[in-house]
Every structure is written in structure tokens, then in C-alpha cells.
Amino acid sequence: MLETSLYFIQQLLNGLTIGSTYALIAIGYTMVYGIIGMINFAHGEIYMIGMYISFVAISGLTMLGVEYLPLILFITLLISVFISSTYGWAVERVAYRPVRGGNRLIALISAIGMSIFLQNYVRIAQGSRDIAMPSLIQGGWSMGPLDGFQATLSYMQVVIFIVTFITMTGLTFFIAKSRMGRACRAVSEDMKMAGLLGINTNRIISLTFVIGAALAAVAGLLLGLYYGVTNPYIGFIAGLKAFTAAVLGGIGSIPGAMLGGLVLGVTESMTSAYFSSEYKDVVSFGLLILILLFRPTGLLGKPEVEKI
Amino acid sequence: MPKSLPTESLLKVRDLSMRFGGLLAVDGVALDVNEREIVSVIGPNGAGKTTVFNCISGFYTPTGGDIIYKGQSIHGLADFKISRLGMVRTFQHVRLFSQMTVIENLLVAQHRHVNTNLLAGLFKTPSYRQKEQESIDRAIYWLKKVNLLEFANREAGNLAYGQQRRLEIARCMVTEPGLLMLDEPAAGLNPKETNELDALIVSLKEDYNVSILLIEHDMGLVMGISDRIVVINQGRPLATGTPNEIRDNPDVIKAYLGEV
User: Fold this and answer.
1) Nearest residue of A to residue B91 by CA position?
2) What string of H, E and C letters represents the secondary structure of B48-81?
3) Cβ–Cβ of A196/B78 closer than 8 Å?
4) Which of B141, B149, B138, B121 is nearest to B175 (CA)?
């Protein structure tokens, strides 16, 4: 009895860990969709780039002789967020803005093209093989009998929870309280009207891409540390998962993306634990299909009101 | 075309035309709005009044003609730049940010007044705080003016229709416009609300030196407050004059009532 509940707790912790990083990536999808109504399929690649930059920055800092771990992580976070945001900004500027206002299919194809471009660009620049990094944050708290199954909450998981929580809280406040957040909400409700009231809508759109990319970079650093390995192809599947999370929560809704990420993460880890880990993707994408069939607006999404 | 032309009127529209494929929706429309003047655009349904509005406000890029505001041609300018010059409009349908609160609607319209530096916003520098406070003060002033102060923190979409209409006008006014363009502001209002609107529009002109360009079907309102009236029929200009001249103009009567 004790063992089964400890096992369950362990799976829940693992699920929430993965889920919170899905949520971080999903916000990028949901914000962009909320404002310009397109799916940024290159977003997963931004996450992958964020992870690569983290790896490079950590090894660079270690080589320079920086030994204090929190400092390494903090500087890495800044570098990764900054460079990834620049990528996010540039992707919008180069691949989406010129085709905005045209048929939506064009933007979609442009996004897929951008995704393929970024993936191959990293593959050529960094090589297509896995690169690995020793785990920097080790240890954790264990619960349960010493001779039986122990549920472990690793320090790495704690870091992921805390960083995700701070980031989400910051974003929520930014959107709800700040002047730019207010403009973001206005643009996502009625872009044309916002423009007619003097808001530079292009700048707000750039801002959402930058925020989305920054959050993806945070997720890239966290998951990079968690898994300790990366390759140029991880962006695709992570992007799909985060997209699923965004749709699950209700695309366009930021709290929805947070919730959707957690639900998806827990669903996956429970599937792996009680059924088979090979079926976890089947279950997550099956869930996506079910949601699209029976509740297309997602868990927290509002029914689409056709804009005139 | 020279960027800047000498002009005495605030808004000067010449030979405006707008073509949608094979349809010439607006053809050769001219109008002037002077400082502190209320000009109404009237005409039968489908005459092209709203299309004229859409061209002037930058919603459409007109296919021909000149639009000169304060001596500057605004042809093809981005919508936010036109609004920053001081032209702001409403639509036939209420277009509030309905999921935002009433006061947020007024604050977001003052977005450009506050220092655009993101860092200043993050660190809340004194000048940023001061500007933000000024925005709030201005918003509260206008909420009082249109009798909506008690609803300041209500979601805009939950207001009654007449209140939403007033909020839209307040939202235009916080941008401190030189020219306010109202597209059928009295549509859907009851007679009492229409009278209040009438007084509000006149007060905007008298007390705040705003010029107003108005599209309206409520002839009582139009005849009562307009300094001049421009009549459009089937996309073409039909007559221009004071309310009295328009009332007696046989062409206008014919356009509205048909051939007798």
C-alpha cells in the first residue's frame, strides 16, 4: 500500500516536472496565436536553440573558471534568454511579418519552412549527434523505507518548479498589470482598433514573439540540465507536445497553457508508469485528437467569437 | 505629390475614390473640416459614407485622391501613425476591448503618451510613474464626464449598450484628438440617450476644441448640431451646405424620397 502510493507520488512529481516545462513552451504558442491567430511552428526550434546555447554557455563559463554554480546558471540563463529572444524576434521579422495579412496557409508554410531551416542550421553548426553535459545539480530528498521503494524529489526538480513558478508569476503580472501587457491584451482582442488608437501593433507582435522565445529558452536551460543531453531534433517533438498542451488548455489563453502543460505532463508520466512508456506519445496525441473533437476550445478557452 | 500643402482647414479631402474590384464605391468625394466644426456626412443606405470614413481613418488605403490633415498628406500612412497625428474614430458597431475593464480601455488608448522605454516600465522610473498617473487622472476625468466612473473596474463588455457607446467616445477623447470621427454614434440609442449624446458632442466641440466628422441617420441629431452637412449619394458627392440649405435642397430630397 505504502509502496504503491509512493510510486504514485513519484510519477506525479515527474509528470509535474515535465509538465511545467511543457507549459513554459506552450505559452509561446498560445500568446502568438492569441495575437495574430497563427501557429508558430518554429517555436520548438527556438526551445532547441535555447538548450544548445545553455550547453555552450555552461561549458564556456566552466572553462573560464567560474565555479560557483548559481552564478553559472544565472549567467547562462541571461545569455540563453537574450540570444533566443533575438532568434524569436528575427523569425517573426523575416518569416511571418512579410506574409501577414495574406492567406493563413502561407504563414503556416512559412513557419514550417523556418522550423526546417533552424533545425538544419543547428545540425550543420553543431553536428547531428547528441551532445551531453554532466548533471550539475545532483541529489534530492527521498521519502519511504530505506529497503523498499523510495520516492525522490531531486534538487533539479525543485529548481525546475521554482524557476517555472517565478517565470509564470512574472508573466502573469506583466500581462495583467503592466502598460505593455495591457497593450498586448488590447491587440489580441482587436488588433485593428488598437492600431487606430495609436498602439504600434507591429511592436506588440514582436514583443509577444520575444516573450515566447524567452520562456522557451528558460525551458531549454531547465530541461537541458534535467536530461543532460540534446540534439538538433528535440525541438520538433517538444514543439508538438507544447502545442498539444496549448490546445488542451485552450489556445490563446495563458492560464490555459499553464494548466494544459501540467495535465499533459502528468498524463504522460502516468501512462509510462502504469501502462507502457512506449505508448506515452500515443496517449498525448490521442488526447489532442479527443480535445479537438469534443472540446475544441480547450479546458480554459472561450468560444471563438468571430471578429467583424 | 508634395508632402505638405498649405491649407486653412484641419482636414481636407479632395477627389477621394475607392474601388473594390469592379465596384467604384466612392467617386470624387471632397470635404473640409475646419477647426472647431461639426461636419456631418449623410446619404441613403449604401451611399458610401462608411467607406469614406474608412479611407480617411486609414482603415482602407484609398485608390485615388488626397487626404490632408493639418497640412500633411496621410495617404497610405500606418493606422497608428494617423491616430498619433490626432485623428481617431469609432465604428458603427461598438468596438471596445470587451474583456478589459472600463478604465483599462481608457488607459490602453493612452499607450503612446507614456514613455515607450520598456526598462523605464520595469523599473518604474519617476517620470514613468508620473506619466502613468497622468493617464489615470485623464481616464478618471473622462469617466466622470460620460457618467461611467462607478463602472471603472467593470468589464467593458458587461456595460449596457448606451454606456458602451459613451465609453467609446471617452476612449477617443483620452487620446486628445484634433478630429473625432463618429460613425453612427446614435444607432441603437433611445431618445433620452440620443439627447445626452447630442449635448456631449456639442460640449466636445465647445469645451475641448475638437472638430467632429459625423455619420448619422438620426436627422434630428444631424440638423441640430452640424455646422455643415455633406450629402453623398451612390458614392458621389451630391450637395454641401448648412443644415438649412440641405433641408431645402431638391436634389437631396429626391435622393432620399425618390422622384415625385
Assistant:
1) A193
2) CHHHHHHHHCCCCCCCEEEEEECCEECCCCCHHH
3) no
4) B138
Cβ contact A187:A201 at 8 Å = yes
ipTM of the complex: 0.83
* Interchain pair A197, B114: CB under 8 A: no
Rg over alpha carbons for chain A, rounded to the nearest Å, is 20
Q: How many CA atoms lie within 13 A of A272 on its CB side?
A: 16
Q: What's B215's DSSP letter?
A: E
Question: Considering only CA atoms, which of A97, A104, A210 is closest in space to residue B78?
Answer: A97
A22-140+153-263+278-294 — its CATH code? 1.10.3470
Residues of chain B with CATH 3.40.50.300: 1-86+177-260
A307 touching chain B per CB within 8 A:
no
Q: Across the interface, do B59 and A197 touch by the CB < 8 Å criterion? A: no
Confidence of residue A296 (pLDDT cuts 50, 70, 90): confident
Name the phi and psi angles at B181, rounded to 5. -110, 115
Would you state the pLDDT for residue B188? 86
Check residue B64 and give its pLDDT: 87
Residue-averaged pLDDT of chain A:
90
Kindly report the nearest CA distance between residue A193 and chain B, in angstroms. 7
The C-alpha R_g of chain B, in whole angstroms, comes to 19
